[in-house]
Amino acid sequence: MRVPEGGILPASEAWLERLYAGELVPREKKPLVVDTRRSWGPLMVSVDERPLVVLDACSQIATLTHGFAHPGMLAAVDGGRFDGCLWSNPDTRVRRVKELEDFVDALKRRAPPGLEHVSVVGAGGAEANEKALRIARLHAPPASEGPRTRVLAFRGAFHGRTWVSLGSTWNPKKRGPFELEGYEAVFCEPTLEAATAALSGPQAHELYAIIVEPMMSEGGERYLAREFFVGLLTLARRHGLPLIVDEVQTGFGTGGPFLWWQRLGLGEDEETTPDLITLAKKANVGVVLSRWPDPERAHTQAPVVSVVRGHIQLETADEPAEALTAAGLAARVEALAAAFPSQVENARVAGTTFAFELPDEDARAAFLAQRLHRGLMLYGGGARTLRFRLNARWDARLLDDLFERIAGVLRDLAQAPAAAPQWRAEGYEEVCPEEPEAAALRYQLRPIEEGDWRQVMALEREAYETERQGSEQFLRRIRDGGFGLVAVELPPEPAPATEGEPAEVSEGAGGAVLGFCLGGPLENYRDVAGPDRDPALKRRPGEVFYSADVTVAERARGCGLGRELKRAQIEWARAQGFRIVSGRNRVGDAMVALNRSFGAFPVVTFDGLYKDGDGGLLAAEYYHIPLDVPFQLLPPLEEDVSPASSVVGALVSDEEVDLASGLQQPFGEAPAFMASRELIGPLTSRINLSNYTTPDVVQYAEHLRLMLPRGTRHMYFTTSRDEAVDKGLRCLRLSRPAAQIALSLEGGYVGHVTAAARGLSDPRGFGSEFSLLRWPRLPHPAASTSARGVEATVAALDAIVQEHGAASILGLVVELVGERSGLRLDGDCSALLAAACRRHDIPLVLVETASGGYRNGLGAWAVDAMPPGVVPDMVLWYPGGQLGHVFVGDRYWVDEPLTLISTWDGDEVSVIRAHEHLRAAGKLETLAEASESLGALLEMLVPAHFAGTVVGGLGLYRTLTFEDAADAEAVRAACRKRGLVLGTGLPGTLVVAPPLSIDGATIQGLRRRLNGALAAAAGRERAS
């Protein structure tokens, strides 16, 4: 562990000040800026030269089954499992994605009987619960005395921070500012008596579902009894109400079994299975297991890289509880309670989690204030509870460390309950605690020379048992076929000269070899145990460097020399073009931990390969350390890579051309400019970005600060498009507490997972009973053939204000380019609409998903090309993957920390991708020409075959709206037969969204194929 003196983190502080500059985002991050490339297992490491290294005892709020640098994910990167989704997100609404199908199949295998349907949503637990509530409402009893708009939930519950999930969350401080009249949840105590009364109470006829956590996490780690749930199932079925079990935090093995429900002995048959179960956190996405199908399943747009991460964590979900049981977690919790009987109350353990209460709320607050100061991270729950979430990488040594830290805080609080937290520096007082005299050692690394071999062999004999020693001939052969370094001792620093006296010159012997390292190409070690079973010998010849030896003299151990030798070995291998460093170590050896800190993961484990000092047999681990992304992930490198070079091949060929996935894949599947970005750390060490940040996130935020849309100066991160809408509306609600409705335009689309997004989106093309929130939609100015269309829109707005009052309106949410409709808000219309909003003092919220990020062909944002009077209060942008943005102006900016957060607030992999895509798009010189070419081609060809077809959209986002929906489907099918993939929008509307890097000549090269497809769809073949 490492805690710097005084908690001083200069690099972290500098990064945070860069993030907070100009009040871009709220000041809500914890003081350490996390290095996801150095963090490992439970160890969360800051970016500082002398880092703060923290024991993450909450596993990023129950998100990580194996802590940072998940070995299964590292192996998956190495094995190519992320090949098709790392550089950009495949659009699961456009094409079949095997990774998503495999994950769904795996979830079905783990689901209790009767839950045959699986839904996946983009963000996390809140969206999963909103999706479950949506499905449940479709299967609620028919309305009798008015609409069913309420949920039965329980005191102490937490179900998320999106509008409806937050409405069923008990905490009044979190829920209260956002409740909507008529949609408030009915709350009762989690007892059968209270639930029975609520289901017979005055609001029972308004209920459409019951939602409950099997273990109330935020409510104080409250383990609810099996008998309660058996009775609740009976009540739910008696009243015909769907029962949703929220396992967002408890699923994926938190309590031992895959589901906490199963831990209670339930779910073995359909009779004891609830109607829906929600999962997230470790799933890396939101998941709903359901009795009923999802009516919007065809519209699923999942972040595939997180789907794969979730699948890997599903495959390894049973390992954490097994590891912690073996390491004696329960015994340590019992010992802690026995040692501090006046402080630790109601200690309990289940699988990977444990918790206890402190005497009062003040004691809990004092304990939490000590967290980082003592090098650990945990969270509170309820009024007095401390809660912990561990993972599979906790061993007995780390558990001992954790419990000693907990005990240390308890001892301090017993002596001085009100004392201010003090940083307890550790890990930096001595360079080498076990060998203090070694602190003075000075050395240099250089290649092995002929005169070094005697000392090298002496070190070999000193360090290893006879059967593990290599001969001099063998070690020389390694050096000659690859690489060899020695660490040679230097004389001590000369004593400083006093005034008037010459400086003292050291006569030290110098030249002693303190350590060495050797290695070479894997192919040189085909007969060695480990390399002989490495699949890379065949699959990736010439890409793997084998670390044959890293040895340090006993008197120099514990001072970082081993790390320096390993780092030098890795740097040499990388410079020579190797993409993996491999090696073999005895399990339990210090080198295992050292290698893991460089990102090693086990490939093969050998039982009994080595002997211990007593003749016993010890296991060995053969490992890989990825140095870069695997070859399969790397796009072709060029001397001068331009953004335009990243378009998928030559689009004039007969190969399939994806003209539908541009929003998710702005530069195709694997743009060349991404080749230099290292994504392994962010990929395998997912960070809770609501609490922490990283340098990559800060750099992206700085880029956005330089290109903020007109009228905005601040920003909130989100994890999805729906969450951006939801968070934006909640932001407005804090300044407009009387507001109850939000307005949008017909044909609009801003999402379909959360109730708030559904309330603003046009329901055409979706399932029945689409919207829970009955929010009005105004006629779209562009939908009318009359030039006076905007006047009808303004008149409708005036009428709603007259009926409801302006204060009751959260805002008017408008797409500048309709994602599903292609309807545009042009300059004159936008100016009149903006003026109407100003007249009524209603916030104007513009959505730039289909037009932002340079796709409009005019600039970074379409709003910047609008008339000067169009100044939005808020701009929403979804760049794809697991990321969204709420840009907001000064008037509605809420800077209070933790007020507008979600668990993840985005994903670091999506952040890096979006940043690189923006950088590349900003350099394109072909956008205007390509935009004009695409529009001209479509307007020339499509109406010629299908009279009355309207070409909509803007720039490189275009739509084709046919008079007959059957014509649209025929054109789409004919295009696909000719290798042109088009997207779908509203019924009868097709979407054309090519990569940004396409150019005019390439677009013209598509003319023959497109014309042939149109002719075939129209029933008459034509020449181009």
Please describe what this structure looks like.
This protein is 32% helix and 17% strand. It contains 31 helices and 36 strands. Strand 35 (983-984) and strand 36 (989-992) form a beta hairpin. It is globular, with a radius of gyration of 31 Å.
- Share in helix: 25-40%
Number of strands: 36
Using the CA coordinates, give the radius of gyration: 31 Å
Residue windows where pLDDT falls under 50 for at least 5 positions:
430-436, 503-510, 630-642, 644-652
Distance between the termini: 70 Å
In percent terms, what proportion of residues is strand? 15-25%
Which outline best applies?
globular
Mind summarizing the main beta sheet?
7 strands, mixed
**Sheet with the most strands: spatial strand order:** 3-11-10-9-6-4-5
Structural class: alpha/beta
What is the overall pLDDT average? 91
Q: What is the number of helical segments per DSSP (H or I, 4+ residues)?
A: 31
Helix-strand blueprint:
Blueprint: H1 10-20, E1 43-45, E2 53-56, H2 59-62, H3 71-79, H4 98-110, E3 117-121, H5 125-138, E4 150-154, H6 163-167, H7 172-175, E5 186-188, H8 192-198, E6 207-212, E7 215-216, E8 222-223, H9 226-239, E9 243-246, H10 260-263, E10 276-279, E11 286-290, H11 304-315, H12 319-326, H13 329-339, E12 345-350, E13 353-357, H14 361-369, E14 376-377, E15 379-381, E16 385-389, H15 396-415, E17 442-447, H16 453-463, H17 472-481, E18 483-490, E19 513-521, H18 536-539, E20 544-552, H19 561-575, E21 580-586, H20 590-597, E22 601-611, E23 617-626, E24 657-658, H21 680-684, H22 695-705, E25 714-718, H23 721-735, E26 741-745, H24 755-760, E27 777-778, H25 789-804, E28 809-815, H26 827-840, E29 844-847, E30 874-877, E31 884-888, H27 908-923, H28 927-945, E32 950-954, E33 957-961, H29 965-977, E34 980-981, E35 983-984, E36 989-992, H30 1000-1004, H31 1007-1018
Parallel strand pairs: 2-14, 4-5, 4-6, 6-9, 9-10, 20-21, 24-34, 26-27, 26-28, 28-29, 29-30
Antiparallel strand pairs: 1-2, 3-11, 7-8, 10-11, 12-13, 13-16, 15-16, 17-18, 18-19, 19-20, 21-23, 22-23, 25-31, 30-31, 32-33, 33-36, 35-36
